[in-house]
Design a protein that fits this description.
Two copies of one chain form a homodimer.
Chain A lengths: L3 H4 L6 H19 L3 H14 L8 H4 L4 H10 L2 H30 L29 E3 L2 E3 L8 H8 L2 E2 L2 H11 L5 H4 L3 E5 L1 H9 L4 E7 L8 H17 L3 E5 L1 H7 L4 H16 L8 E5 H4 L4 H12 L3 H8 L7 H5 L1 H5 L8 H4 L6 E7 L3 H10 L9 E5 L3 E2 L2 E5 L15 H10 L6 H23 L3 H7 L11
Parallel strand pairs in A: 5-6, 5-8, 6-7, 8-9
Antiparallel strand pairs in A: 1-2, 3-4, 4-9, 10-11
Helix pairs in contact in A: 2-6, 3-6, 6-16, 8-10, 12-13, 21-22
Chain lengths: 477, 477
């Protein structure tokens, strides 16, 4: 992404770019071969020639004095060296990723190792995060893999340039919160992150942060998969005791789907009930519909315009795969999903504070929005949001794609009856053995029934209060 | 237009860029010749000719101690050095590319080693409303003609597909209002229209309509030319007795100019004082800043999103000449200037009425926005706004262009002293004979002095009331 600003003006030699990508790929492989000394030296060298775009600026990731870094290296042990290597790999992968994006922006097709520019291959309809033919395809609108084993999440970490949530990080979360890590962490449902260590640093130094997650209300009913980020976010809210904002992107769904504004807003309110039923604390949680909040908060709109000024169409095209035939609403929408990452979008909660760090738990298909956000943040004087990425919830038909609200048979809906669950599950053929099916049904039926019971208790008044811009039970001066 | 987002980040002169590219080219050649040391030295040298664009600033990228960098290099072995060189070359080539991109963005042409900047290419970003070489160029940002007689407005009517305001229409306005037509009608200052007869039909059938005009607050001071639509709009408000909304597009100016949000909003408030000084009725007029009203009216944002869903980037490109390098804020902005054409953007005035016809008096360079609006209106179930188009107020230097707030000598500002008016006018050389100049000064000095006196009476409280969303003295059920 970060290279796009330069290539946006369009006249790069695609061959030079092709060669840069090949060279950078070489480098990533070399790094993965694990030459720590070389990694550090390379990083120092790159620091002096790096393209200068913040997301590449190694200097920010280095101790202030490169010399002392090398000194420290020899003093410090194996684990430190490992950490440098990890950092170096992350950064190198970031660079590779942005080169590929630039390549796509310049050439109009994904980079293919065996296919130099000039021998065009059919264009995929996704952004550069979409993968080469035969590999996984992941963007905010499509998740598809040819492998029956499902998405290769390790590859995704490499391609997206995020970091793996390893045992070390999970242990640190346990130490910081004094709580047993949530099963979604222990079992790798949340498997990837950006800057989580920075959030923990802040937390350990008693600096405040806040949580931001969201939901695109594409239908009245949510399914099991939708609950995952919310179940985990509720746990984060409980163990860290921080404010939480939840964005319902009804404007996005109006722009992308064949819905009226009233339908989209109606879905937002219905979905809010399912979200509230996860048990969020009304004194610590603000849920908002874009269609409603945009017209209720000048501060929110001001951040949207700030972001929109700092992202070009070429960048949006490179990140999201937009085309000239897309409506201008889609093209500018990413700024609206980005804006809640900045605390002064919510003056009723944070006063005029612009520096409260944001942590975003979300499924990894939402990462492109926040890579864009993280690239813009320093250019408009805000901290980058940190992220925790979850895997997708496999469709009933198999792991090749995720549960989708638009395909009833792919999903177990929170509105399904016990009988529907039984039937749907059996309809999925060879996915499970009879015993497993039976066990699954026994788990799902009560789980869904309990959720439905909690949801019944969520009155319109409660929803209204959650969705009213107001101070939460935290004091920011 | 397209390069504003980049240039605002720094202040590189085209020549500095040109030199940086030359130096960087040298460096790449040196690297390819394997002279790593020379490359490092060149890199340090480049710091001093660095173009200053944030994303290029080598200073930001150099390790704190370049000496230790070289020291570290000698520590490691030959293969490492080879690897550094490869990386150094990759990054240097990337940098060279990005400098060339920035050069193209700043200068409008590709970098040519043998051709320093100074003969910039003619502006190439006009849509179909822009004219072929030798003809008039008219779009919302540029008005230019080669003819000393000024813009050929009859040709413009043909090209824009509007209708001439003829004697018949002027007579009909006189019959309908029982008032002598305003001198701007009699003298052809307002010379073109769309659907004005439809507005008069409605008026004669006692159906309500409303007026909408606006101002892009690009500077604190307005000039004479800016007053024309407002003087005429005030007359329309008086003779038709209808509600009036005035949009201050401070968000547009933030997106297009090198301004902060606060500056843009500040200009909006200052300009509002000049507009109020034209004598608008506070009970019949609502003035709003986009940055403020977007965050104060869900109905307004909902119309913006509706319009954004129905305009593709291709259409926006065709109408406004946007390029892929334009920021996504510019690309989606036209929907924000379109939205006030629909009465339900102002529920405080029109309740939930969607069918109150809108009449827009404006200078004809704003027509592209409203051609787009009229194209979208029926597709989202709203009536098309009608328009009355004015000519441009010629610059003091001559009729080839219009008065511009950005060029002090082109304009008589409402803040000018009698002495400034005298001096500026004489400076304009052959424009008028001495007698005419004398007469003009005699007209202008008191006119401006009176305006300044009226403006003094416009208190912050009065501005605040004009800019508060509220019911006007009309009842819409």
């Amino acid at each position: 992404m970060a290279d796009v600003p330069k290539l946006e003006q369009g006249c790069a030699s695609s061959l030079e770019l092709f060669n840069s990508i090949a060279a950078q790929g070489e480098r990533v492989r070399a790094l993965k071969a694990g030459k720590a000394l070389k990694a550090v030296v390379l990083r120092v060298l790159l620091c002096s020639v790096c393209c200068g775009i913040e997301t590449h600026c190694y200097k920010k990731q280095l101790p202030t004095d490169a010399g002392s870094l090398l000194g420290n290296r020899s003093e410090s042990g194996h684990s430190d060296r490992k950490q440098w290597l990890t950092d170096e790999i992350d950064s190198a992968v970031q660079m590779l990723l942005s080169l590929k994006m630039s390549y796509k922006a310049a050439v109009g097709e994904d980079y293919k190792a065996d296919c130099p520019p000039g021998n065009p291959a059919p264009r995929g309809d996704g952004g550069p995060d979409a993968t080469e033919a035969g590999e996984d395809f992941v963007d905010p609108w499509t998740v598809q893999t040819s492998s029956a084993k499902g998405i290769d999440y390790d590859k995704l970490i490499v391609r997206f340039g995020s970091s793996k949530i390893d045992k070390e990080l999970i242990n640190r979360i346990e130490r910081a919160t004094g709580q047993r890590p949530h099963r979604f962490l222990r079992r790798g449902v949340f498997f990837s992150h950006r800057d989580m260590n920075q959030v923990l640093d802040a937390y350990e130094n008693k600096k405040p942060f806040y949580l931001y997650t969201g939901r695109g209300p594409s239908s009245e009913a949510m399914h099991l998969g939708h609950l995952i980020p919310f179940i985990f976010t509720k746990w984060l809210q409980d163990v860290f005791n921080v404010p939480l904002v939840i964005q319902m992107t009804d404007d996005e769904k109006y722009l992308w789907k064949d819905l009226t504004l009233d339908q989209a807003y109606g879905y937002a309110v219905e979905n809010a009930k399912d979200i509230i039923a996860c048990g969020f604390d009304i004194n610590k949680t603000f849920i908002f519909s874009d269609l409603e909040y945009m017209g209720a908060s000048p501060s929110f709109y001001k951040n949207v315009v700030k972001i929109q000024k700092h992202v070009t169409f070429n960048q949006a095209k490179g990140i999201f795969g937009f085309t000239d035939s897309d409506c201008i609403g889609k093209i500018s929408f990413p700024a609206i999903q980005a804006a809640p990452s900045f605390s002064n979008s919510f003056p009723q909660i944070f006063q005029d504070k612009t520096d409260v760090q944001c942590l975003i738990p979300c499924a990894i298909d939402q990462d492109p929005y926040f890579r864009m956000t993280r690239d813009v943040a320093p250019r408009i004087g805000y901290p980058k949001p940190a992220l925790l990425h979850s895997t997708f919830f496999p469709a009933l038909q198999g792991a090749q794609t995720k549960m989708s609200a638009s395909d009833p048979n792919s999903s177990i809906f929170l509105t399904d009856t016990a009988k529907q669950i039984k039937t749907k599950d059996y309809s999925s053929g060879a996915m499970l053995t009879g015993e497993l099916k039976k066990a699954l049904i026994e788990v799902l039926q009560p789980l869904i029934a309990e959720h439905q019971a909690r949801r019944k208790e969520v009155t319109d008044e409660i929803v209204k209060e959650f969705m009213t811009p107001r101070k939460l039970s935290y004091d920011f001066q």
